[in-house]
Amino acid sequence: MTDCGSERGSVQLFLLGLGVAILLLGGISFDLWRLIGERRELAALADSAAIAATSGVDADFFRDQGIGRLDPVLVREQIEAVLDQQPASVMEGLSAPQVNLSRAGCDVTVGFQREFDFALLDFGRTANIMMSATGCASISQG
């Protein structure tokens, strides 16, 4: 008969460690999927604001020159109209839009930033992740 007294309880200790590892992995996956979802939501908002901003064409300049040019005041109004239609949950913690006219490859770019705070993986950190998204749109000439 062998003495197994020194190994007594090792299975429980192994299962406890396995349970903690599974909970940690579940927390990581939960927070990462939340991060991906919120980033996708932010990107969709930036894209829709940029597309709406392209309807802020300076009509007088277009009539005179036949060339589409964006009016900065109308662009801001179009972006504000898109933001007014968003639910409060989307607007929470959202920075003011960063608008850039006539950027290389785009007639208008609209960028947003939002801070993301972890639910399960905070671990007492003081700094959260700052995520950002930029939408780009161009006026169709022709």
Please tell me about this protein's structure.
- With 142 residues, this protein is an alpha+beta fold.
- The chain has one domain.
- It has four helices and three strands.
- Strands 1-2-3 form a three-stranded antiparallel β-sheet.
- The termini are far apart.
- The mean pLDDT is 86.
Sheet/helix structural class: alpha+beta
Q: Give the overall shape, derived from the CA principal axes.
A: rod-shaped
Low-confidence blocks of residues:
none
Ends: how far apart? 92 Å
SSE pattern, N- to C-terminal: HHHHEEE
Strand tally is: 3
Number of structural units classed as domains: 1
Write out the strand line-up for the largest beta sheet, numbering strands in chain order: 1-2-3
Give the DSSP E fraction (strand runs of 2 or more residues).
15-25%
Mean pLDDT value: 86
So how many helices? Answer: 4
Rg from C-alpha positions?
A: 25 Å
Q: What about the largest sheet? A: 3 strands, antiparallel
**Helix-residue proportion:** 40-55%
